[in-house]
């Protein structure tokens, strides 16, 4: 069973994970989503490092003069080293895509960018913007079909 | 609204699940026994003072090669998405940034190379030192945006260091050992020249990571202006 101090550490790591994933799902701004991804990664890395912690232990570096009694587990640390580097690569790639979206559609808002992207695809395919095929409620007239539509 | 509620429910469930899982762990006494075995075997097997380096390059060198490939793929994809970066007319960095960059460049270079070269002795290594090297080469570009970045130069460093990593691994195969087995004499523990080929591998990793990240940062910095 975990002690109080261990619980605090684990709570911090889990909190970072939850905040990050919540930010990814709830945020509409693309750049904030990338930042939330970085926070979630930090939480996961902290969780991994905590899993290898040992009481009264030193960093896993051998000293030729004196051998300490115990060292923390080196395997999670090596894994976290790998995870950090891969995280940097993924974030850089995500940022390049965000930059491209902003250059193309002039916004970082996900919904706006999606609308503009759909409008652009429709325009390049030569079809009218998406609208309801059903009779609207309340006896309102259907909007007149845009020019160049396929009917 | 509904989406937010379901998201919050999911997040609460995720946090609760992680809390329950970690609650069963004995904090401060990891159940994994491989770590202790590696600690006991490292001085005889690999001969590096830093056991994390022994894990990263000695025991799991193949994973590190895969990690380098992922970083390479990310950097290549970033370059593909952003296109070739050309020097743009951007405002000059100003006197303070220019003087600071001139002052910091040699210091960052020395610190980065030191961390790379001592990766098998102290906390640090190719990845950490490589990031500092990337910062060293990125800083002058921020201060003087009009100078053309040396992409071709960086590409050569990156390719050659990556090839060196693989060639060192293949040499072990030639000697009849497994891929990326540490070769050469292990030396005395804690000396600069010890650990066989691991310092060479970490030097290759450091140069590769530094060149890759520097190229990526240069592309990002030169493409941050909105075209519209």
**Gyration radius of chain B, to the nearest Å?**
22 Å
Q: How many E-type strands of chain A? A: 0
Q: What is the element string of chain A, with H for helices and E for strands?
A: HHHH
Rg over C-alpha atoms of chain A, rounded to the nearest angstrom:
26 Å
Flag low-confidence runs of chain A: none
Largest interface: A-B, 57 and 65 residues
Question: Judging from the principal axes of the Cα atoms, what is the shape of chain A?
Answer: elongated
Enumerate how many helices of chain B there are, as a single number: 8
Catalogue the unreliable spans of chain B: none
Describe the structure.
The complex is a heterodimer of chains A (151) and B (228). Chain A is an all-alpha fold. Chain A has a domain at 7-55 and 73-127: Helix Hairpins. Chain A is 62% helix and 0% strand. In chain A, α1 (4-26) packs antiparallel against α2 and α2 (30-51) runs antiparallel to α3 (74-105). The longest helix of chain A has 32 residues, at 74-105. The model of chain A has no long low-confidence stretch (mean pLDDT 81). Chain B is mainly α and 228 residues long. Chain B has one domain. In chain B, 68% of the residues lie in helices and 0% in strands. Chain B is built from 8 helices and no strands. In chain B, α4 (61-82) packs parallel to α8, α5 runs antiparallel to α6 (126-143) and α6 runs parallel beside α8 (198-222). Chain B is globular and about 55 Å long. The two termini of chain B are 34 Å apart. At the A-B interface, α1, α2 and α3 of A face α1, α2, α3, α4 and α8 of B.
Brief rundown of the structure:
The complex is a heterodimer of chains A (151) and B (228). Chain A has 151 residues and is mainly alpha-helical. Chain A has helices spanning 4-26, 30-51, 74-105, 110-125.
